[in-house]
Amino acid sequence: MPSEPDLDVVTEQVRAVATEVILPRFRAQRDEDVSEKASGDLVTVADLEAEVALSQFLSAHVPGSVVIGEEAVAADPSTLTTAIGRDQVWVIDPIDGTANFVAGDPAFGVMVAFVERGVTTSSWIHHPATGRFFAAQRGAGATVDGQPLVRRPGSENLDELRATVVTRLLDDSTATRVETRASAFGTVNPSRLPASQQYPRVADGKLDVVLYWRTLVWDHAAGALLLEESGGRAARLDGSDYEPWSDRTGLILAADPETHARAAAVLAPVGRL
Fold first, then answer.
1. Does residue 74 share a domain with residue 177?
2. Closest of 2, 218, 253 to residue 123, by C-alpha
3. 82 and 175: one domain?
4. Residue (of 120, 125, 133, 110) closest to 90 by Cα position
5. How far apart (Å, rounded) are the C-alpha atoms in residues 92 and 218?
6. Minimal CA–CA distance to 154: which of 165, 163, 164, 141?
7. For the chain, which residues score pLDDT lower than 50?
8. CA 263 – CA 210 distance, rounded (Å)
9. Residues 75 and 144 occupy one common structural domain
10. Backbone phi and psi for residue 4, each to the nearest 5 degrees, phi listed first
11. Which residues lie below 8 Å from residue 113, measured CB to CB, with a gap of 6+?
């Protein structure tokens, strides 16, 4: 068995789990298949079963590695603390955008990241409803459906940039301040899409800037590598690198490093909101 992930083998397994476990329940949920793990935070049988299937495969794929999944951490937060100290860790979000999945909206995804000694080295993002598949390896670039994915630089003009600001976790005054600052961009789109959709939208050129506040590892490790390897930039409000195990808040996704710097100067002019 490999000591490093095989990108193609993991890709096929993620597709298989989506096909066999997730898609059969899409738009076929029973009331008893859906519950709340916290107020307003949904989990389904498909989330749980997909996480188990992926965890079993991935831990065997790279012997000695450990797996943390969003649902396992929700059930026992100590599993995250334990995993942070390990050399090779898989991070899984079995269905990112569960509320969309439950509502029959195709905007959901499966995200997997492989973190070695605190650095994400491989990542996979799959959109089961459309079949699109994004993958990346550190130093080897990013792909979409097996083809190279290269992000064009963003415009030098702020009023030509397309942005999304996710403000739902901010207090009212901060949210208002951020939204006012964001008006400098050409367009500001609603923030209803989950991270598994937003990261690819920046990487493939549909968006130029996204602002996040909360940065849970299963929401961001896979996408941050995809964006960086496509030529984009995922970094903190002060320009410092994103690190998977950091509990810092605030993250800006951008078309390229220069666009990140311009966006940060607008949204967080002193390195904070």
1. no
2. 218
3. no
4. 120
5. 6
6. 163
7. none
8. 9
9. yes
10. -130, 155
11. 90, 91, 120, 122, 123, 124, 217, 218, 221, 222, 225, 244
pLDDT of residue 230: 98
What is the predicted pLDDT for the residue at 2?
A: 63
Sign of CA dihedral 156, 159, 162, 167: positive
SS3 14: helix
Give the C-alpha separation, 258 to 165, whole Å: 18
Q: What is the CATH number of the domain that holds 260?
A: 3.40.190.80
Tell whether 137 and 246 lie within a shared domain. Answer: no
Boundaries of domain holding 62: 7-148
Q: What is the DSSP string of 146-192?
A: TEE--PPPPPSSGGG-EEEE--TTS-HHHHHHHHHHHTTSSEEE---
Q: Are residues 124 and 246 in the same domain?
A: no
Number of C-beta neighbours around residue 119 at 10 A:
14
Work out whether strand 209-212 and strand 251-254 pair parallel, antiparallel, or are unpaired: antiparallel
- Residue type at position 253: L
Q: Is the domain of 129 the same as that of 168?
A: no
pLDDT of residue 1: 55
Q: Tokens in use for 107?
A: 């905007």
Angle 244-248-254 (CA atoms, 0-180°, nearest 5)?
70
pLDDT on residue 3 = 85
**Which residue type, as a one-letter code, is found at position 34?**
V
User: In Å, how far are 18, 40, 71, 263 from 13, measured between CA atoms?
Assistant: 9, 30, 19, 37
131: CB partners within 8 A, 6+ apart: none
